[in-house]
């Protein structure tokens, strides 16, 4: 897969993990919640944040890095406090990014 597709896959996996965490929290399944939030945090930290090129990406890359750090912190709080609103907040922050990333890909494929 090309780099753009890999980022798309990371966003998709992150959103899937967040939905799984949300469902586990609603069911009060502590183990599944921890597993899903752990995976989401790893995708943010080891995938999306680690893939940023801060030296060439300028302000945009720095802003994304700060957002990923914030989201990771919110997921830690969500896990510790069983805070569904924190998970929803992260979904609300990441979903538009994932959608925009897909639109960039589609525009590039269509030549415009």
Architecture overview:
The radius of gyration is 15 Å and the shape is globular. The protein has about 110 residues and is mostly helical. The chain is about 90% helix and about 0% strand. The protein starts with a helix and ends with a helix. The mean pLDDT is about 95. The longest helix has 28 residues, at about 55-80. The protein is built from four helices and no strands.
Key features of this structure:
112 residues; mainly alpha; 4 helices; 0% strand
The proportion of residues forming helix, as a percent range, comes to: over 70%
Number of strands: 0
Low-confidence stretches: none
Shape assignment: globular
Largest sheet at a glance?
A: none
Distance between the termini: 21 Å
SSE layout and pairing:
Elements: H1 3-27, H2 30-49, H3 54-81, H4 84-109
Question: In a nutshell, what does this entry contain?
Answer:
It contains four helices and no strands.
